[in-house]
Amino acid sequence: MKKRTILTILLLIVLIIILTLSIIFIIKLKEKIDIKLKKEKEEAELVEIFQDATKYSIFLEDDADVHKLKDEILNINGVISAEFISKEDALEIMKERFKDNNNLLEGYEGENNVFPNSYIVQIELNSIDDINSKYFGKFINEFEKIEGVQKVTSSYETYINIYENYGIEKFKKFLEEVEEKTT
Questions:
Q1: What is the chain's percent helix, strand, coil content, to nearest 5?
Q2: Nearest-angstrom CA–CA distance, 75 and 34
Q3: CA pair distance 52, 125, nearest whole angstrom
Q4: Predicted confidence (pLDDT) per residue in 78-114, tens digit
Q5: Which of 5-19, 63-77, 120-134 has the highest mean pLDDT?
Q6: 8 A C-beta contact, residue 155 and residue 55
Q7: Where do the DSSP E strands lie in the chain?
Q8: How far apart are CA 82 and CA 142, in angstroms?
Q9: Are 92 and 98 in contact (CB under 8 A)?
Q10: What is the pLDDT of residues 160-172, one digit of tens each?
């Protein structure tokens, strides 16, 4: 009987140890899953922020066929939109931005308008891996090859630099400040 009691106690101790180890394993596994989910959420948020913030300005030559150019731009793999901005619209946008010094742009209407027609282009980001200079740079190269394109600019280098050097929170704050200043 005594032997049986000792075996029962030993069995209970082994079960308690196994149960404790199982609980510790489950807790550690949950922590790893939570960390992974948090990282995935942050990555998805970052992709969304870059998706919304990163746009290309494609300035056109005066004699460019704007409809043909739009088709060529939209046919580039990864481009999701191309919004046309006429010379006149560009002048009005600048007048709005400089409304406190509106006289700076007097006399630029009609034939004196110095602003080119342009497209504001947005690209598709599929994952965190797309947020790099090589991915963004390939679009500039593609846009510059199109006949009738005068110049291509983008804010992606500034955004990547801020994100890589200061992290997502400061990057979001920067974008909020830019939005406040431009609206």
A1: 70, 15, 20
A2: 40
A3: 10
A4: 999 999 999 999 999 888 888 888 677 888 888 888 9
A5: 63-77
A6: yes
A7: 55-60, 79-85, 118-123, 149-154
A8: 14
A9: no
A10: 777 777 777 777 7
Walk across the sheet containing 118-123 and list its strands: 79-85, 118-123, 55-60, 149-154
Q: Which of 117, 87, 120 is nearest to 105 (CA)?
A: 87
Amino acid code (one letter) for 117: N
- How are beta strands 55-60 and 149-154 bridged, if at all? antiparallel
d(CA 108, CA 100): 17
Return the half-sphere exposure (C-beta side, CA atoms, 13 A cut-off) of residue 166: 12
Sorted by sequence, the CB contacts under 8 Å of residue 151 that are 6+ apart come out as 58, 59
The answer to whether residues 95 and 104 touch, using CB atoms and an 8 Å cutoff, is no
Q: What is the rounded CA–CA span in Å between residue 141 and residue 138?
A: 5
User: Would you call 130 exposed, middle or buried from its count of C-beta atoms within 10 A (0-12, 13-18, 19+)?
Assistant: middle
Write out the two tokens for 151. Answer: 């110049």
The pair of three-digit structure tokens given for residue 32, joined into one six-digit string: 């790893």
What DSSP character marks residue 127?
Answer: S
The SS3 of residue 152 is strand
